[in-house]
Queue: 4 jobs
Job 1
Amino acid sequence: MTRPLRVLCLHGYTQNGQTFRDRMGPFRRSLKRTLDPVFITAPHEATEFQPESKEASESRAWWNRSGDVWAETAQSVRFIHRVMRDAGPFDGIVGFSQGSGMAAILMALMQAAHTQKPQNTHWDADHWDADLCELIQELADCPLPKFAMLFAGFYPELPQFDILVREPKGCKINVPTLHMVGQTDAIVPMERGQLLATQAFVDAQLRTHEGGHFVPGNAAWRKQYQEFIDGLDLQR
C-alpha cells in the first residue's frame, strides 16, 4: 500500500464530526498507517435527544424520526455527495450508529446510479418514486466505495431503502463491509445490526463484541480491523 486509504467517517445521532473523531482515538491511532479518516458533521440539528455531554458543541443528525424523514435523509445524501465530489475521492466509509445507516442508504443509492440505466423501466416513476430516481441520477458521478466499516448500525426503516436493496426492484449492496454489533447494546439492539448486515449487503462480515453502544478499541479488535482491510481487493 503506497498511501493510507481515505475514509469518510459518519457519526451517530446527537454526535458531530469532532466528537466522533475524539471517540475514535484508539481506532485512529492503531490504523494511522492504513487509514486517513475525514470526519464530517451532519447538516441537521438532532431534535429528539440531548447531547450526551455538556461539552458537545453541536448535536447533529443525518435525519430525525419526526417530520419528513425521507426529505431530511435526501438532504443529507446531497450534502455528503458534495463532500465526496469536492474533497474526494474516498476509498471507504466508516459509520457509527445512525451514521452506519446513512452509509448504507448512500451506498444503495450509488449502486443504483451505477447499475441502472435511464431507459430501464426501474427508472419509470410508476416503478420507483420520481424523487428517488432524481437522487439516484445525481450520484452517478461518484464511484462506489471499495469497502465500509459499520459500527452499531441498523437497517434504516424507510420504504425508499427497501426499494433499493430488496427484489424485485432493487438488490443488496455489493460492497465489502465489516459490521460490528454489541451484545449488550441498549440503544441499537444486536438484532437490528445483524439485520443490516444480512438483509442489505452481499459481502458482509458480521462480528459481535460483548459490549454496548461503542466502537471496540482493544488490541484484539484493532487487529481484526487491520485484517479486514488487508484482505480487501482494492482493485475492484
Job 2
Amino acid sequence: MFSGGSFGAFKTAAQGAAKRFTTQAGSNNVTYNAAMGALGATAIGSGVLLFNLNRTAAYANMEAEGLHPADYPFPQKKMLGTFDHASIRRGFQVFKEVCAACHSLDLVYWRNLVGVAYSDEEARAMAEEYEYTDGPDDQGEMFERTGKLTDPIPRPYANEEAARAANAGALPPDLSLITKARHGGVDYIYALLTGYTDAPAGVDIKEGLNYNPYFPGGSIAMAQNIFDGVVEYEDGTPNTASQITKDVVTFLNWAAEPELDDRKKIGAKAALLFSSLTLIALWIKRNRWHTIKTRKIVFNSPKNWGKSPFDKSK
C-alpha cells in the first residue's frame, strides 16, 4: 500500500512531468506551425512563379521551343464561357475552303455538325457534294455513292504516302484534336496561323520552309494560307485575317471538345448542388453538436492533496 510520503512523492513527480510535457508540447507546436507556414509559403510562391512564367510571351529557349503565345480572349476559355456557334459555322467554312486542301478531320462526321452549326438539311446537302466508296454490293464489287450524315469529313489524300508526296515529304497533321495536342491550345494555334513573318538577320531558312517564331525551331513546312479576304462569309462578317483565324480556331476547338458546353453546364449544376448540400451538412453538424461542444467540464480538486486516499484516519 502507499504511504503518505510515497503518495506525496508520486504527486510531485506527476506534476513535474505534466509541466515538462506541456512545455515540450508547446515548443513542438510552435515548431510545427512554423514549418507548415514555411512550406505553404514556398508552395504558393512556386505556384505564382510558374503561373507568371507560363503567361510570359518570351522565355529563355525560344528558338528551340518557339515563342510562347499570348493569352487571347476566346469566350470558351472562361470558367462559364461557351462556344460562339456562329463562329463555329464560319470556322467550318474556312476549314472547307482553306484547310481541307491538306489537312484531314477524321474524327468529325457530318452528323456532328447538326444542331451545332448547321441544320439537318444543310448538313445533308453538304455531305451529298462528295462521293464515297462503299460496298461490297451483291456482286462483291465496291461502288461510289453520294455522302450521307453518317460519313466522316472526307480526307484530302488517300493515305499518308500520298500526303507526304504532295507536301515535299511533310505530313499535314489531322486536325480533329489539334487544339488538345499542342501546348497552349487555341492560343498556340491562333498565334501560329497569324505569326508568319520574315526571318530575322542571321537566321537561315531552308528552301521550301517558312519562318514562324511560334513553331519549335522557327522553320515550318506549311506556308501562310490565311490573308484578308481569303474567304467570303455568307453572313457578312468582316473577313479580316484575324477574324478568319479566330473562327477556324474556334471550330477546331469545338472539334476537339464538342462536349465543352454540356460539361460546363453540368459542372455549374453540380457546384450549385454540392454547395447546397455542404451548407445543409454544416447546419446539421452545428445543430447536433452544439450541446456537446458548449458543455463545461469542471474538475474539483480534493481539499487535502497531502493526505493519502488510503489513509483511513480522520
Job 3
Amino acid sequence: MVACADDVLWLRTKHRIVGSLEGSHPANPLQNNYFGLPLFLMPEETALLIERDAICIEGDKFEWPQSERDQLRFKLFKDLHGRGFFVTQGIKFGGEYLLYPGDPLRYHSSHIVSLVDHGQTVAARELITLGRVCTAVNKIRLLSSWNPHTDHITHITLN
C-alpha cells in the first residue's frame, strides 16, 4: 500500500507502475467513479520493484511468487513491462493483464493478455469466445505462454 501522492507519481513516471487506487475522496465519500489514495500494488508490481531495489517492504516480509502459476505470471509481467507497456489487472475483460501503450490516464488499453500453459491445446470454441470479447471491446487478445525449454515467453495475437 502506498499512501503518499509523491510516491504514487514517482512509481508511475519512473517505473511505469500503475497499481490501483482504492481510497474514497473526503469531499464525496459515497461516489465510486473515482478513487484516491491509498494505492495498492499487484504482487507482480511489488516483486518487480523489490527485484530492482526500487522499494523496500516495511513490517511483514513480502513472499511472492509462491506457486508455479505465480512464477509464470511474474515472468509474463516482467516480459510485458520490459517491452515498454504499462500493465494493469485484466480480470475486467477475462484476462491476466491489460496492456497500455502509454500512461493509462492518457491511453486506452490495446491488448487483453491471457496466460496459456505451454503445449496446452486451446479449443476452437474458446478461441472464438476470446476473439468475440476482444472485438466487442475493441482490443487485441494476446495469448502468452512460457516455454520451459527455451526459458522465453511466446506471444500470439488474436484479432
Job 4
Amino acid sequence: MHFRLLCRFLWLWPYLFCLEALTIHKVQYDTKILIKTIVTRINDISHTSISSKQRITGLDFIPGLHPVLTLSGMDQVLAIYQQILTSLPSGSVTQIYNDLDNLRDLLHMLASFKSCPFPRARGLKTLEDLDGILETSPYSVEVMVLSRLKGSLQDMLQEMDFSPEC
C-alpha cells in the first residue's frame, strides 16, 4: 500500500516541479507585459519628449537616472513614482498609477517565489519640494516625471530578462 502511494508520488514529482517553474515564468512574463503596457500608456500621453537625464532644480529626488537591479529596489522606485503621480494635477496619470500598483504586486509575487523577504516599500517621507515646483510649472514636472518613469521601466524590463535578485 505504502509502496504504491510512494510510486505515484514519485511519478508525479517531475510534473509538480515543472508546474512551479511555469508559474514563475508566467509571473515574469506578465510583469514584462505590464511594463510594456505602462510604457505604451506613457507614450500615448501627448507630451513633447525630453531626455530623462535633463534636470529641473528641486526634482533630484525623482528616481530614473540609474538602473535598479534588485526586486526590492524596483519596488522602492515604483513606490516613489506612485507617490509623485498622486501629487500631479493631471488626471491622465490615474491608470498609470493603478498599473504601477499591479506591477508592484507582481514584483512581490516574484520575490515570494524566490523566497525574498522584503516589506512593501514606502514612498518618500515628504514631497514639499514637489508642491512648490508644481505650483510654478506643473506641465514641466509631469513631463519630467513621466520621462524618468519610462526610463526606469525600460531598465526594469531589461533586468527581467536576467531574473533580478532580491
